[in-house]
Amino acid sequence: MFKHLFKLIWNKKKQNFLLMSEMFVSFLVIFAVFTLMVYYYNNYKKPIGLEYKDLWVVNYNNTYNTKNTDSLNIFYENLRQTIKSMPQVKDVSFCSDNVPFSQNQWTGDVYYKNAKNGADNYIADDDYQKGLGIKILEGRWFNKEDAVAKTQPVIINDELKDKLFGSEDAIGKLVGTEDKKFNLKVIGVIQGIKAKGDYSPAGAAIYKRTDTGSYRSMGKMMVKVTPDADAAFEGRLYKTLANNMRDSHIEIEHMPNKLKSTNLFNIVPMIVTLIVACFLIINVALGLFGVLWYNINKRRGEIGLRRAVGASGKSVSSQLVYESLILATLSLIIGTFFAVQFPLLNVFNLQAGIYIIAIILSVIFIYLLVFVCSLYPGKQAAAIYPAVALHED
Amino acid sequence: MLKNYFKIAIAVLRRRKFFTFISLFGISFTLTILLVLTAFIDKVVGDTYPDRKRDRSLYVSRISQVGKDATSSGPVSFYFLQHYAGSLKTPVNIAISSGFNGTNTYVNNKKIALNFKFTNAAYWDILEYDFLEGKAFNKQQVDNADKVAVISEDMKKEYFGDMPAVVGQYIEADNVKYRVTGVVKNVPITSYMTYSDIYLPYTVAKDGDYKNNKGLQGGYFGILLANSPSDVDKMHNEYEAMVSRLRPEEKWATNVYSHADTYVKAYVDTGDEKRSGTFIAVTAISIFAFILMLLPTLNLVNINITRIMERSSEIGVRKAFGASSRTLVYQFIVENIILTLLGGIIGVVLSVIALQVINSAHLIANLELTINFTVLFIGLLVCLVFGLLSGVYPAWRMSKLNVVTALKAQ
Asked: Cβ of B102 and A251 within 8 Å?
């Protein structure tokens, strides 16, 4: 039976070629859309890795003018105590400029034996983990004793651990940020923080502890407040900060708002893509429907003859549906061939699983689309009476 | 002749209403999406408020220091603009402004988040902001480091509420009180080189970066103004020559790159010497537009073939009476163009509605998208290309039809 259907398709190869190329291009478009969606969904379902509610970030610039590192440290320790003594403040921590949900990024390679992997570099102090509510998977966070540790301690996230150590244990191992210089000791593994919003991956990250000179280059302060902290309190906090750091510009931002605007960078392209894809699909569906419908009208004689020699209405309509599904299969084979190149050549550095799921989803989608579009024309064909159809000729 | 074709086209369109609907739907929606896209691009890079002297301006947005395996790139320093760019002969004036930075202010226990930007006095001469009241600060006030500010319309509304005139009032920002000298019309945030809520003299900047930072990189943008549009090339060359004489300040760096470019080029400058931002932007937009148009075109070709084959008897009769293939192809292309133009008109109407919706959704504050003549022209052009593309192949196939088979078909 399939051989027969192939022959029918081959006889009208010119018209079918156009139909097939349309299905082929639709498949590629759908594949791109599904890849994006699967990628976003994959990231979305992972935990965000920090408690951003009631978390504020203060942007300042270090303008405390001194050559003496000790007095600089005393200045910021005093500032920390002043802020922490406010009733609504739970925790205060200082860190490098690349706070979560900001545009700042600081990347570098991390080495372990022969392995190497790019990672986001962060500098954070002892209170950072508590303030942000970061989950520790293994080992511990920094504490005061680390200041006198022989080898500089670092903390990595789960992603970096997987990349560098695999299933090995990471705690106590030596890594380096320069090749062949393994001078950093891993003391903890934390759950990754999705610093680029809900829809982006956490990515590998390494945290170093603030040291005596760090205050010179830092410009962010994370403040965890109680849920009842309102604008009036924020105004007081602002005044306190401004009075302590007279030459600095100060801005207080709320992490939930920052997350929202960071997410927009992913959501807006997603919505635009979806709208455009929807329109293209409606367009293609209408086109397929129209062409199939017209074809049936042209083949009334043939269909009438089949009915006359005893074919049931069901078999006539299923013949037409099969024909379009075979056409779809042919274009899907070509389309899949192109789509498979993405995971094989590792084009955008995505996991192969994402592409495979996207390919499967798009194949199902195209089949469904073609099936739905040929259903009505098929039904119409089944309603053709042999007497009427044959009489016309 | 054309009138006849027109009549035939309308008659054909009315015969198979479903097919007509599919064709018009495809054309008009594709056009709508393209029009919204071009309106957006046109607004973002083509809007000349407040820099109306674009034809004789060059923009300096970044400087990069490039070494073997590291690059440091970012906005230029105030010192660089004043001393190096300031030493050039061709520019008659240089506008210097910082990038915008955020801060807060608290009024009546309400928090207002705002962006501020530092400028020199020449900034207000080169850029023609529309002042709703008051005027800009002048050179004297900048030199004296007066605490004065020009604020945007939105800022006025948010900070002062319904107060009719605010010139002379004080606005508190970043814990400092500034006297308002003028209120300007809003600039959307997409014009990142000129956008801000509050504009301040650079001399009141708390961090003193403008006098302490003697390096190349900093946080400032510059606009170089030439005497006339014909001097722009000269100015560009002079700037490039000046930059090529610069030495990197970082030890690991071997080269310094910086360009004084036209607005669009500066807007998309990524600081990467090998891959220009313009190239990336143009490629991305073209690929998007190509895919967007490819599917509806294929669809239209499919539909058109179906429709034309339906008319095989008409073609057969015309051919039998001596019409040449060329006349027939011509007729069908004209018919198709009429169809696409019809779709185009619907598309324009849909675009107006879509733009209204986008504007009222306030996706980006102060970004008022409108259909202008450039966009309309592009839209019509797209329509014609569309019509030709989807009409030529079916018409060609039809014209090759044999008279006998065509007549026998019915």
From this structure: yes
- A250/B292 Cβ within 8 A: no
Q: Three-class SS of residue B228?
A: coil
Q: Which of B187, B232, B227 is nearest to B97 (CA)?
A: B187
pLDDT tens digits, A107-128:
888 888 888 888 888 999 999 9
Q: Quote the CA–CA distance of B236 and B259 in Å, as a whole number.
A: 8
Do residues B232 and B226 lie in contact, with contact meaning Cβ atoms separated by under 8 Å? yes
Report the Cα B148 to chain-centroid distance in Å.
32
Contact A321, A367 (CB under 8 A): no
Chain A residues with CB-CB distance to B22 below 8 A: 283, 286-287, 290
Mean pLDDT, rounded, for A316-334: 89
- 3-class secondary-structure state, position A136: strand
Residue B272's pLDDT is what? 67
Interval A286-307: pLDDT, tens:
888 888 887 777 787 888 888 8
What DSSP string runs through A282-324?
Answer: HHHHHHHHHHHHHHHHHTHHHHHHHHHTT--HHHHHHHHHHHH
Q: Give strand ranges (E) for chain A.
A: 55-59, 89-95, 107-112, 115-124, 136-139, 152-157, 174-175, 184-190, 205-209, 220-225, 251-254
A136-139 and B71-74 strand pairing: unpaired
Q: Where are the beta strands (DSSP E) in B253-383?
A: 253-261
Q: Is A348 exposed, middle or buried (0-12, 13-18, 19+ CB in 10 A)?
A: exposed
Contact A93, A124 (CB under 8 A): yes
CA-based nearest residue to B42, from B335, B367, B343: B367
Considering only CB atoms, B29 lies closest to which of A253, A268, A283, namely A283
Residues of B in contact with A277 (CB under 8 A): none
The tens digit of pLDDT for each residue in A224-251 reads 999 988 888 898 999 899 888 888 888 8
Please state whether beta strands A55-59 and A251-254 pair in parallel, antiparallel, or not at all (unpaired): antiparallel
- Give the minimum alpha-carbon distance from A326 to chain B in angstroms, rounded to a whole number: 18
Residue with tokens 């009842």: A228
Q: Give the integer Cα–Cα distance in Å for B258 and B239.
A: 9
Strand partners, A234: none
Of the candidates A45, A2, A53, A43, the residue with the CA atom closest to the CA atom of residue A226: A53
Nearest-Cα distance to chain A for B88, in Å, is: 33
Asked if B111's CB is within 8 angstroms of A235's CB, the reply is: yes
**H or E element that contains B167:** none
Largest CA distance in chain B: 94
- Please tell me the distance from the alpha carbon of residue B103 to that of residue B114, in angstroms, as a whole number: 6
Nearest to A113 by CA among A185, A163, A182: A182
